[in-house]
């Protein structure tokens, strides 16, 4: 996977360290961090913006490379990468979510979520905030007649069978 780019501060700090090395002085990271931090605070917003612009350009490139790399990964490589990330999370590393295969078939909606989707399309609860909408839809679902629920359950079951077939075909095509 591509490496996340350095922040604006990180870019400034690396540039500062390069200047120190070029001057021939010995680099003591703790001392140079304090010096660079003081210099960073002295920079104007316009001077900092140069580093922020570099960071934003690097971030756009990183996201492009990451999405390209995700499309190239096989399901087995996804498993390996997710296992690595799980081990890092277990060791205390934060901010590493599991990867989702963009090429894999998507799981279908459950019967309740199909019902909720139809309720939102009809606009019955459009005037309510999203939390209140969810509560009202849940209450509406619990009060819905059994024949209406069974219709949604059947749709969900059919979609789930189709998903399982697509997933099996995807895994067979991408060992």
TrEMBL record:
InterPro entries: HMG_box_dom, HMG_box_dom_sf, HMGB. One of its GO terms (molecular function) is DNA binding. It comes from the Eukaryota. Gene3D superfamilies: High mobility group box domain. Residues 2-70, 105-171 form the HMG box domain. CDD domains: HMG-box_SF. Residues 2-70, 105-171 bind DNA. This is HMG-box. The lineage of its organism: Eukaryota, Fungi, Fungi incertae sedis, Mucoromycota, Mortierellomycotina.
